[in-house]
Every structure is written in structure tokens, then in C-alpha cells.
Design goal:
Blueprint: H1 3-19, H2 31-41, H3 48-56, H4 60-80, H5 84-97, H6 102-120, H7 124-134, H8 137-145, E1 158-163, E2 166-171
Antiparallel strand pairs: 1-2
Helix pairs in contact: 1-2, 1-3, 1-4, 2-5, 4-5, 4-6, 5-6, 5-7, 7-8
Length: 173
């Protein structure tokens, strides 16, 4: 088994756990968030072929789990005022984008964009870096070129909330 195959197997096992649990209702960050984040954080150091092998092996419930992880990381980034969760959230979303409907991906992308502005003042550098690593530069560039009003989380069906744990993006639909 190559290291990429091992990474795919480990990530798939974590996403299987997420699919079989009440992951969406777990506190942020959860142990599962940490484990998925650690697995994804290793991908930028891989070569293009290994990243592609991992990305191509994710689909269905696992891709939906990565989208949920990305939503959670947007909230965590704002809570901690830390761009680190945004990087792993973007990696997760761009891997999921290979098998998910672009319209669904854009919804979550609005959260990562909003969080990047809150944390770093801009999303452009983060999006460019992620797009080059995960082969989705066109999707990210297209989102960045949208009118500001078309990137707003409210347009995409989300709103900001505060919980006892802190900041949280929540669906409004």
C-alpha cells in the first residue's frame, strides 16, 4: 500500500465514523474534527499524484462528510481567529467538490470566504493557494469574481450565531 493509499484509507475510515454518528451535532472542535484535520493537513506536503489519488477516492457520504467538516472549520476559524482551520476546511471542500454538485460546494465556500475575511482580512491568497494544491483554481477564482452581494452567507442560506461554545455558522433553511 502506498502512502497515498494509506492516507485515503485512514481518511475514509474517519469519514465513515462521521457518517455513522451525529457528527453535525458534536461540539466544535470534536475529536473527529481533530482527526480529520490532521489527516487533511498532511495532503499539501504530498505530490500532485498522491493528492489526486486521495481526492479521487472520496465520494458519496464521505464527500458530504468533508463538506460538513468544512462548515465546522469555518466556525472554528472565526472562534479561534486562526486561518489554520480554513486551510483544512478548504482542502476538505475542494476534495468533496470533485464528486459533489458545484452549487452545493458554493454554499459552503461562502462560509470559508466569510471566515477568511473575518480572520485574515481577505480570502484571495488562501483561495489561490488551495486552488493550486487541489486542482480547483477555476471554481475558487469564479467564486472570488462574483459580486460581493453574491458571496454573502445570507444569500447562500446561512447566518451567524452565538452559542455557549462561541461563534457558529448555522443554516437558515
Amino acid at each position: 500500500m502506498t502512502s497515498a493509499e494509506g492516507m485515503l484509507a485512514a481518511l475514509s475510515a474517519l469519514l465513515e465514523r462521521a457518517a455513522g454518528s451525529a457528527y453535525s451535532r458534536q461540539s466544535i472542535p470534536s475529536d473527529l474534527d481533530t482527526a480529520i484535520g490532521e489527516a487533511l493537513a498532511r495532503l499539501p506536503s504530498c505530490d500532485d499524484a498522491d493528492r489526486a489519488l486521495v481526492a479521487e477516492g472520496i465520494a458519496g457520504d464521505h464527500a458530504r462528510g468533508l463538506k460538513l467538516f468544512a462548515e465546522r472549520m469555518a466556525s472554528l476559524a472565526v472562534r479561534k481567529h486562526d486561518p489554520g482551520p480554513l486551510k483544512t476546511g478548504l482542502a476538505a471542500l475542494l476534495i468533496a467538490a470533485r464528486s459533489e454538485d458545484d452549487r452545493e460546494v458554493l454554499l459552503v465556500l461562502s462560509l470559508l470566504h466569510d471566515a477568511a475575511i473575518k480572520v485574515a482580512g481577505s480570502a484571495e491568497a488562501l483561495f489561490v493557494e488551495a486552488g493550486s494544491l487541489f486542482g480547483q483554481a477555476e471554481l475558487l477564482d469564479g467564486f472570488l469574481r462574483r459580486a460581493d452581494k453574491d458571496k454573502r452567507i445570507q444569500v447562500m442560506g446561512y447566518e451567524e450565531s452565538e452559542t455557549e461554545d462561541g461563534f457558529l455558522y448555522v443554516r437558515s433553511w
